[in-house]
Write a structure and sequence with these properties.
Radius of gyration: 18 Å
Number of domains: 1
CATH topology: Nucleotidyltransferase, domain 5
CATH superfamily: eRF1 domain 2
Number of helices: 4
CATH class: Alpha Beta
Number of strands: 7
């Protein structure tokens, strides 16, 4: 995508990372050009060994119903760990000079904790919003508003 003329171009190669609980989209912005370069996705499903049953008065029930919050946190942690590893490889390959992150406000601290310190040094923007389903031009606008 080309950034419309009314918005400023990126002055250096920047990876825009747009994430939520289950996926991370990586866009490379350089000048007026912004393109999706990678997608990391983790399904919100428990592993077999993590399934368990809870005995209730009505009989056994899946414990998954009670552990949705824990499952989301586990999935998010796996996603952010894989994201950090992927970004470190890209940093070592000199694919970018700056990083911009968007994530839901309630997950932003966890994201920062999972990122390698060298990635944090390259992070120029943290946008506390869930933009994973937004149009690319809107994502660019949010990122540039914070720069």
């Amino acid at each position: 995508m080309n950034i419309p003329e009314k918005y400023r171009p990126f002055d250096r190669p920047t990876l825009i990372v747009v994430t939520d609980n289950v996926q991370a989209k990586l866009f490379k912005a350089d000048g007026r050009e912004v393109n999706l370069v990678h997608l990391i996705s983790k399904k919100l499903e428990p592993m077999e060994q993590e399934r368990s049953a809870v005995m209730t008065g009505a009989g056994p029930r899946s414990a998954d119903e009670h552990n949705k919050g824990e499952l989301k946190a586990w999935t998010r942690e796996r996603l952010y760990t894989e994201l950090s590893t992927d970004l470190m490889h890209r940093l070592q390959a000199k694919e970018f000079e700056a990083l911009a992150f968007t994530a839901p406000e309630e997950d932003m601290n966890e994201l920062k904790e999972c990122l390698h310190v060298d990635l944090l040094k390259h992070a120029t923007v943290f946008v506390p919003k869930d933009l994973v389903n937004d149009e690319l031009v809107d994502i660019v606008i949010h990122v540039q508003d914070e720069m």
